Amino acid sequence: MRILDAHVHLYPPEINRDPAGWAATHGEPHWALLCTRRRRDGRPVQGFPSAEELIRELDAAGIERALLLGWYWEQPASCALQNRFFAACLRAHPDRLLAFATVPPAAGPAVCLAELERARDEGLRGVGELSPHAQHADLSAPGLEAVLAWAGAAGWPVNLHVTDPAAGPYPGRIATPLADFRALALRFPGTRFILAHWGGLLPLAGEGPAPANVWYDTAASPLVHGPGIWETFLRAVGPERVLFGSDHPLHLYPREPGAGLARFVAEARAGGAGAAVFGGNLLSLLDPAGTSATPSGAPGSGPPG
Ligand SMILES: [Zn+2]
After folding, report:
1. What is the pTM of this model?
2. Taking CA 14 as the corner, what is the angle to CA 171 and CA 151, rounded to the nearest 5 degrees?
């Protein structure tokens, strides 16, 4: 079975060299809090692989392609840096990587839309991971509304970070009320949303069915949920709404050094994930009409067999 990972983070060399130092000098304290901290046992919460190291990690886990998601940066310059880096990654590994663009909604429509247009020219395919709650933009911020409308018109999916209300406290945790996501999806019915981290279990919250333009990824699931979540969620929501995504290079099994992507793939498979969850749904989101040419190097574009 072909496997795509719909939720992977990756950073340029200047960030990888000294993540905390870079964040301190570039106005990104929230990212630093989430991504450069150490656990109580002293181990870092995540790694900082290069693109080439990421490809080797994908190979080891049997993952054919990864969708790179931008971070929900606070500064416009950080968004631009990451989008240009992703463009370079796509040029270097067109057969292994896909990428979404990140934008700073609080900077307003002009900045965000210029960034999206440029990213589209560079081969990026969607928006995210955004977190208006962490990016100082309320739900009616003009920049956010412009981005969501543009994405709907362009056919670009939008990945939004959702904090699971059930997840315990951790440094940098930001509350993201589930009602906000429901409201956004209803206000922008032509925009397709991917709510990260099982959507904070929004469809299981007992407030009725989620809007039709909402999908969910499984990023960081082992840090919050046991493996039973797969069967529960897939039964309640349906496999056609779920995208396998890891949140790599976050360490998904911190108590088991060495257990990473391959272990998560096995957990998903055991939980009932099939071809749709492992990539079919993502490819449909990227090409909703199913008419445009399959992206170069994408599953399905090679010779048969
Ligand atoms: Zn993420």
Report:
1. 0.93
2. 70
